[in-house]
Amino acid sequence: MRAFAAADAAIFAGYRNDPAVARYQGWELPVSPLDAAAFVESQQMVTGPVPGDWVQIAIDCGGELVGDVAVGLDGTGAQAMIGFTLRRDRQRLGLGREAVAAVVDALFGHGGVHRITAKLDPRNSASARLVEHLGFRYEGCAKAAAAVRGEWLDDERYALLREDRREWLARPAGPPADVRLVKITPGNVGAVAKLATHHSQERFVATMADSFRDALVPPEATVPWMRAIAADSELAGFVILDESASAHPEPLLWRLLIDRRHQRRGIGSRVVPLLADRLRAEGHRVLKTSWLDEQGGPAPFYRKVGFVPTGDIVGGKVQATLSLN
Length: 325
Prior knowledge:
There is one protein chain. The chain has helices spanning 9-16, 19-22, 33-42, 95-109, 125-132, 162-170, 189-193, 208-216, 267-281, 299-304, and strands at residues 54-61, 64-73, 79-86, 115-120, 137-148, 151-161, 179-182, 224-231, 234-242, 252-258, 286-291, 308-314, 317-323. It is of the alpha+beta class. The protein has 2 domains: 6-169, Aminopeptidase; 171-323, Gcn5-related N-acetyltransferase (GNAT) (Aminopeptidase), CATH 3.40.630. The strands form 3 sheets. Strands 1-2-3-4-6-5 form a 6-stranded mixed sheet, sandwiched between helices. Strands 7-8-9-10 form a 4-stranded antiparallel sheet. Strands 11-13-12 form a 3-stranded antiparallel sheet. A hairpin with a 2-residue loop joins β12 (308-314) and β13 (317-323). α1 crosses α3 (33-42). The chain is elongated and about 70 Å long.
């Protein structure tokens, strides 16, 4: 992270004018070379955030400008808002997450900031995943709240408190030594109900509340079997099978939810073999599931653990099976 330099102007104008980069951003188009040069010049003396103002910080990789992070402080310096942009050819490499994390930790660690917010276009799933993986919590959607190039667009709001970031960094991060499927009891049902995926994943997996509803009052011809998932004795997820032989001869992996704090630990990959062992012992030879095959969806996970698409698409979802032989 560094201040902008005069030599950055051409690259800055290039990625600001890239339709793929500008799609979910609010700046006016096109950005002329003169406008880019003037903006870069205005940011060359930036040494850090300024209360009551916005600053733009360059992201440098290998001595070249690859994007920027914007930081706006309120007048007290206690609350910050961030925005971020990355060149198209440097996306999906983890650079944006590393840069935004560095800014977030600097604001909390040295800047005296209490709360950081981010506003995103609801269609910008990549940026949503970025802030979610830093611990930001979804706070809701403001309808028609952003005026962008003549349109009123929705704004999704994310926020992070200093203590949230501290707890996020201290959460369990490595593979658990023990993963088990445990019954849901009066003693643990409250904790299970609080499990939650990231908001951006809710288009692919139902919320905990909806999963409980469907398990307790299932659709017709559905026979749910549900368990909580414990990782090193801490509740970390929830799974439901549909065992209705009348609706389909093979059991169906209906829901698999890993709590946002426990994702990327390999827990889901440990759960599927546990389910397979149980079903195999009951004489089953196949486990079915389905998924929406879209960016950010669960397809890579299911393929990794051995599910193979059948070639059928039902209700827009890819149908797949896991052999238990």
